[in-house]
Write a structure and sequence with these properties.
176 residues; elongated; 4 strands; alpha/beta; Rossmann fold; 9% strand; 6 helices
Length: 176
């Protein structure tokens, strides 16, 4: 359940009993925190250096602002990143916007990949390479889990679903 919705069954129960619609924002913050933790863990395991200066809070405007603010320092260092893997497509779109303003060519100078495959990720310039999630299946599994919680049945601790790489034009190809 935590991997599907980013919330525990007890949180769902509290959300169901809450009249306000603040649950969406709270759930998104939990999902974002889980994504960031897992993302940084995967980078560490793969021995990939990452730039703490470019870590943003999962919004288009903050990823844009971080790149505008720190790129001048990074471009003059020997630690210039070759790619940005954004935690969601909105952050990747913010990065595309910033690099266009800075006259940094995507994908020639830096590659950008998003995560979510939101409906307009192919409308950017260049079209955004991204990871698609099985959102319909995620919703289906979340409802199944919720019904089990309501009926006081045992639920799985986590559910893993396949994702799909959607190759577009924001990532340069490397010959290996």
């Amino acid at each position: 359940m935590a991997k599907i919705a980013g919330v525990s069954p007890s949180t769902i129960s509290r959300v169901m009993n809450t009249p306000e619609i603040v649950a969406v924002d709270t759930r998104q913050k939990v999902v974002n925190a889980v994504r960031e933790k897992d993302y940084l863990s995967a980078l560490k395991k793969a021995h990939v250096n990452w730039k703490k200066e470019l870590v943003a809070d999962f919004r288009l405007d903050t990823s844009y602002q971080k790149i505008i603010q720190y790129w001048p320092q990074l471009k003059n260092s020997d630690k210039l990143p070759t790619a940005i893997f954004a935690a969601n497509d909105l952050m990747a779109i913010g990065a595309l916007k910033a690099f266009a303003q800075l006259k940094v060519r995507v994908p020639e100078d830096i590659s950008i990949i998003g995560f979510d495959n939101i409906s307009f990720s192919d409308c950017t310039y260049p079209p955004l390479t991204t990871i698609a999630q099985p959102t319909y299946l995620m919703g289906q599994k979340a409802v199944e889990t919720l019904l089990k919680v309501i009926n006081k049945k045992k639920i799985k601790k986590s559910v893993e679903l396949e994702t799909e790489l959607i190759e577009r034009d924001s990532v340069s190809r490397w010959e290996v």
